[in-house]
Design brief:
Elements lengths: L1 H19 L4 H8 L3 H13 L13 H13 L3 E5 L7 H19 L5 E4 L3 H6 L12 E4 L14 H11 L3 E3 L10 H9 L1 H10 L4 E4 L1 E2 L8 H4 L5 H9 L2 E5 L2 E4 L26 E6 L5 H9 L5 E5 H16 L1
Parallel strand pairs: 1-10, 2-3, 2-5, 3-4, 5-9, 9-10
Antiparallel strand pairs: 6-7, 7-8
Helix pairs in contact: 1-3, 2-3, 4-13
């Protein structure tokens, strides 16, 4: 404990000298009588542990203009476009986006707050980049079922919620259900259980929800579709229903609707209407393959805060321009 406190004090002192006093690292190392590499490690530790937050003002308005157009068109609360070269490829886009999303969530999370977590590959990728933040009376609530997919680097929904709760010293509220039931009757029975009802009631009290949109297109299919839960018959139903993706395991059509979809009677996810009533419905998206599902989510008004990579943002803007010209 004392060692951690000493490291925090040293990191804070180094950060104040570097960022406030604008001293070069070499001079800081001399004054503190440590090596240059030690100062570098202390500054990194300060950033990783929330002592330092970096803000960039886009003076030329490149990202700002793009963000503003998307924000105004879809009547969103906030849009964050993450700069990244198109040539870098989807894996780099995703890495940049989840890092920004982790920082964004840290700025939003406060004491006495209730956060809902939807299981999936994108949200799983956010978890390792969270900065520890000590909160009081915070709660993290599981929104969906979700089994671990080790080959895809995706932990179970229970492990994911536990990880977010631990980061904020919050209470984890867990839902012990699979991703998808085999029979709708089983879900109906489980949803009547007292332990399940307790979680469902907490879901109605959420302040914020963190999620992505799922898609079954291409080689980057989302966790729900990459896990072989769905049969060829299920996919035939999805095509007939004009399903383009999912939010928190719940299938959605091109217009964002989800009512009367047979698969949703088996899916372990929330009533998506709750997303329209939280202060922050934070959707994190990366890649062209998610564009159709993103458009459906926007059409359904399930998003208040959108974080996405720059190439996908420009592609989304292109669809907006086409709509305006039509």
């Amino acid at each position: 404990m004392e060692a951690n406190r000493k490291q925090a004090e040293d990191a804070l002192q180094a950060a104040q000298m570097y960022y406030y006093q604008n001293l070069p690292m070499k001079k800081i190392a001399t004054e503190l009588q440590v090596s240059l590499s030690t100062i570098s490690r202390l500054l990194t530790w300060a950033r990783d542990n929330g002592l330092v937050e970096i803000r960039i003002n886009d003076l030329h308005g490149r990202a700002g203009s793009l963000e503003e157009r998307i924000k105004l068109h879809y009547n969103l609360q906030d849009v964050v476009v993450v700069p990244v070269a198109e040539a870098a490829g989807w894996e780099v886009w995703q890495d940049r986006v989840v890092r920004v999303a982790a920082n964004y969530l840290n700025q939003i999370m406060t004491s006495d707050m209730m956060l809902g977590i939807a299981w999936g590959g994108t949200v799983s990728a956010i978890a390792p980049h969270l900065t520890p933040k000590q909160l009081v009376n915070a709660h993290v609530v599981q929104l969906t079922g979700g089994n671990a997919l080790p080959t895809a680097g995706i932990c179970s929904a229970i492990d994911l919620v536990t990880r977010f709760a631990s980061n904020y010293e919050a209470m984890a509220h867990l839902l012990y259900v699979p991703t998808l039931f085999d029979f709708a009757e089983t879900k109906t029975a489980v949803w009547r259980e007292g332990s399940t009802q307790r979680i469902l009631k907490l879901q109605q009290q959420l302040d914020a929800v963190l999620f992505s949109v799922g898609t079954f297109h291409g080689s980057q299919a989302s966790a729900l579709y990459a896990s072989n839960y769905l049969t060829p018959a299920d996919y035939a139903v999805m095509q007939a229903e004009q399903i383009v993706g999912s939010i928190a395991n719940i299938m959605i059509r091109t217009d964002g609707s989800y009512a009367d979809i047979q698969l949703n009677q088996r899916a372990c996810g929330p009533d998506l209407a709750l997303l329209r009533h939280v202060n922050h419905a934070i959707c994190v998206v990366s890649g062209y393959h998610k564009l159709a599902a993103l458009q459906a989510a926007l059409a359904g008004r399930y998003i208040t805060d959108l974080i996405l990579d720059e190439p996908t943002a420009y592609r989304l803007l292109g669809t907006i321009s086409s709509e305006e010209m039509a």
